[in-house]
Amino acid sequence: MPALGAIIAICAGCFAGCSTSDCDDLQNTLPMAGFFSTDSTPTPTTLPRLTLYGIGAPGDSLLLDSALAVSEAYLPFRIDSRTTSFVLDYLQGSMRDTITFTYDLSPRFSSMECGVVYDYTPTAITHTRTLIDSVTCPQGIITNVPGQNLRIYLKTSPLQ
């Protein structure tokens, strides 16, 4: 009988090892924004300090708290609304921008393991213009594929 227990344990380990867990990283759609300069050839840039928070989000909406050297940031969109707004605070309250995303939300069956994920198709992006020149969604849709799906172009070299 001990041999039977060993065989069962080995088989269970094999089945567990064969299951892929692609959902661990790709279960949710989490928009990632990169910061870029508006030079003649836009290049990735870094903000020396950034506080970032959502507007009207339930619970604590603080995403970054005086973070140093920020070149990209996650901007989680709400699934209970068709709009999500964020504040980018550059100098602890004295200089800030607000970005509002309006989007269509589309559920998509991903796999048996992952179930349904949501894709976002921006229909409008509005923002203030303290440092922000423009905001784009280069692919036109935000899916659960990792990487930057939003670009925030800044007017000048950030706060140097």
Describe this protein's structure:
There is one protein chain. The protein is mainly β and 160 residues long. It has one domain. 13% of the residues lie in helices and 46% in strands. It contains two helices and nine strands. It is globular, with a radius of gyration of 21 Å.
Topology readout:
Blueprint: H1 2-18, H2 23-26, E1 32-37, E2 47-55, E3 62-70, E4 72-74, E5 83-89, E6 96-111, E7 115-127, E8 132-136, E9 150-154
Parallel strand pairs: 1-9
Antiparallel strand pairs: 1-4, 2-3, 2-5, 5-6, 6-7, 8-9
Core attributes:
160 residues, mainly beta, 5-stranded antiparallel sheet, 4-stranded mixed sheet, 46% strand, disordered N terminus
Distance between the termini: 73 Å
Given as residue ranges, the uncertain stretches (5+ residues, pLDDT < 50) are: 1-19
The spatial strand order of the largest sheet comes to: 3-2-5-6-7
Task: Let me know the largest β-sheet.
Answer: 5 strands, antiparallel
The shape, in one word, is: globular
Given the structure, what is the number of helices? 2
Helical content band: 10-25%
Summarize the structure.
The chain is mainly beta and 160 residues long. 13% of the residues lie in helices and 46% in strands. A hairpin with a 3-residue loop joins strand 6 (96-111) and strand 7 (115-127).
